[in-house]
Each structure stands twice: as structure tokens, then as C-alpha cells.
Amino acid sequence: MGKTVMKRCILIASVVGMGIVFSSNIVAAPAIGSLSTLKIDKAKAELGKRLFFDKRLSGDAAIACADCHEPANGYSHPDALSPGYPGNEHFRNSPTLINTAHKKVWMHDGRLGTNLNDVTREMLTEDYIMNMDMRIMQERIKQDPVYVKMFKAAGYGEASNGSVRKAIPEYLKTLTSKNVPFDKGKLSSEAKRGMALFKGKGKCIACHNGPMFTDMLAHNTGVPENFDVFLDPKRHQAFIAYSMFMGIENYMNLKRDPGAYVQTHTADGSDIGKFMTPTLRELKYTAPYMHNGMLKTLADVVAFYSKGGGKDRNKDPRIKPLKLSKGEQRDLVVFLESLSGDPLTSSDYVWKEKYPEEYQAIPNWRKVRN
Ligand code: HEC
Ligand code: HEC
Q1: Other CB atoms within 10 A of residue 241 CB
Q2: CATH 1.10.1370.30 for the 42-176 domain, yes or no
Q3: Which is the most buried residue in 75, 180, 311, 321, by most CB within 10 A?
Q4: Residue 294 pLDDT more than 70?
Q5: CB under 6 Å to ligand 2: residues?
């Protein structure tokens, strides 16, 4: 696909190019720009918000969605590798959920390509994430009078698994970038220089394009393995469970994250180590970076690209040493920072009220009328 785009670019350049100087560095890609506005149902989103911060949605009522997707960290997690359900730890970095409703493919390996309803189900039911039996969840929710009211107000009637999986995605739609300097066209001169590098010499736009700054495809940039995944038994057991489920061969000996290979199982292994191009919005809050948190700061990421990425036989040929000066690297970091808006930590986004610790259990649900 990259090739077709390039060919088309050359064609356009030769047709309309007379009088226009095309730099040899130019990359044809969907334009970067502002995000579209999503239509949100307020009552459903409000219910979704309460569910997102509620620990009772996990098997032993110990963790909520928000424990791995923390508001102050841009709805990602500050540890390189995410926590997991008690007894486990995760083997990947928890990604930001800001603007996730604008995506079409989810997870670092791109294995979920339907909708956020399915992603929510995966998060709730996966053993090493929330380990929730949805039938128990439904009954637990029905015992809380506040939920009874909220499900009704949202037009769902009685609480059900299906409506939980609709309400949470509705809430996720509210997590969208706000007051972003880039969107407002308010860029400092450093940021403007950074943007020119982003589109030109750096060729970042080849993969980080469109309003989300991602082509929604998987590539190999040679990010080094995070060996905590294999050295920490709590992480390794989660990794093994995942690998078995995804049909990875030789998973007991595997000492690397196969990435998008789980989708294709290419015979030559050329998809091993490819990960989805992440969004570049809200990076100011979401450190550390990459699928395994191996790069701590934006300066580290830019330095990584400047030296031509990591070492990997499958590395994308477009990742080449850029030899950016210290000043150019700084400008690029300032540009990346201009893609972050206000923190989404107010009660518009965060459920700040207490959950009832004790309430009258409803003895017979069959008799309850909504
Ligand atoms: C124990 C930690 C943990 C909990 C709890 C958790 N998540 Fe996640 N979430 C993750 C990790 C780690 C990933 C990335 C997994 C991967 O790539 O394999 C992820 C991925 C996602 C994604 C995909 C984002 C993207 O851009 O690809 C969404 C959406 C999401 N989670 C929503 C939720 C919701 C909603 C809940 C609660 C129902 C939840 N998560 C609970 C750790 C967690
Ligand atoms: C060949 C496609 C490609 C090009 C070109 C590219 N990137 Fe990336 N970028 C990716 C992929 C894929 C990842 C995720 C890698 C991973 O998770 O291991 C990534 C990750 C990142 C991240 C980390 C984001 C996060 O949330 O973890 C930043 C920042 C970034 N790139 C910036 C840039 C900049 C700046 C340039 C230009 C100098 C650039 N990229 C060029 C594909 C690309």
C-alpha cells in the first residue's frame, strides 16, 4: 500500500508539479488535522463513567478499568508494563483511552477490529485483566440501587451484560482531546519547525497520519524486548495464557512478543515484532512509550528514531538513521507535545462520588419493576 501511495504521489507531482517544487523528502499520506465530533448520549455515558471506575466489575472486586487506565496518566498506566488481575501482571503497556473511540482497530497487536463493545468484553472477562464472569457481574450490578436508577434513566431498563458493554463505550466517546494547541493552530516557532521535520526529513507522517496520527497498521520499528515479561513469573503466566489462546507455536520457549504475527501467522515470520502505530495525541500524559514501555520520555523516542530505530530483521525499511541535531530533536519533541490538550481529570470524566459500601440487597429480582 505504501508503494501505491508513493506512486500516486509521483503521478500527482508530475501532473500538477509544474512550478511547484517538491522536496525529495515529501511523503504522501492522509492529512493530519482535527478529529471529528462524536455524538454522545449523556445518560448512557454517565452510566458508563460510573461503571468504568467501579471495582465491583472485576472478579474479586479488586480492580476497575481506571486502575490500569488512570485519568492522570492520560487513561494509560505509568508503569512500563501494565498491572493485571490480582495474581497476574500484564505483559504490555496499558494504552491511552483518550480518542480510542476514533479507532477502528484496537490492542497493540491489532487483534480486535470490530468495535469497543467487543474490546470492553475482552477487558472484563479475560482472566489476567478483570476475570469477571458476566453473569455474576449482572447480578452484582442489580443489587446497587444507584445502578437500578441509572440503567433506567439511560433507557436500558433492567441492568444486563449487553447494556454494560454499550454504556462503557458510550463513556469512552467522551474521552476526546480538548483544547489542543495543534488543533487550534497555536504552534510556537519550535513546534512549527518540529512539524516540518515530522512531515519532511523525519518522515514520521508516513505512518503517523490522519487526525489520529496513525495509519492504523502494524509495523516493526525494532523496539527492544522488555525481558520483565519473561523473568517475572506473574507476567510470564499471563503471556503464556495469551500465546496459547492466540495459537502461537513454541510458546513455552518464546522470549519475545510476537505482536501482529498473532493475526497472520506468516510462514516466514515477517510479521513478528510488528505493532500497531499508536496515536500521537496526548503523549504529554502517557509515558512511558511503546507497546512494552521501553522508552521513558519523548526525548528518548525521538533519539531512538534519530539513530534509525532498533535492531530487528523485520524492521520497516523506512526506519533509517535520521541524524537529527540536538536542536532538531528538541523541536520534534515540542511538536509532539503540541498534540496534547487539557487533562481529562475533572468530574466531567472521572466518577468522583463514593460507591455505596452497604446497601439493602434486593431479595427477589423477578418482582422488581423498572
Ligand atoms: C489489569 C489492567 C487493565 C484493566 C483492569 C483494563 N485494561 Fe484495558 N487494556 C490494558 C492493556 C494492558 C491493554 C493493551 C493490551 C494488548 O495490547 O494486548 C488494554 C487495552 C484496552 C483498549 C484498547 C486501546 C487501544 O487503543 O488499542 C481499550 C479500549 C481498553 N483497554 C478499555 C478498557 C476498559 C473499558 C476496561 C474496563 C472494562 C479496561 N480496559 C480494563 C489493561 C487493562
Ligand atoms: C514505519 C512506520 C513508522 C514511522 C516512519 C514512524 N513511526 Fe512512530 N511508531 C510506529 C510504530 C509501529 C510504533 C509502536 C511501536 C511499538 O509499540 O513497539 C510507533 C511509536 C511511536 C511513539 C510512541 C507512542 C506511544 O504512545 O507509545 C512515538 C512518540 C512515535 N512513534 C513518534 C514518531 C516520530 C516522531 C517519527 C518520525 C521521526 C515516527 N514515529 C516515525 C511507526 C512509525
Answers
A1: 16
A2: no
A3: 75
A4: yes
A5: 108, 202-204, 206-208, 219, 221, 223, 275, 277-278, 280, 283, 286, 289-291, 298, 301-302, 305, 316, 318-319, 332, 336
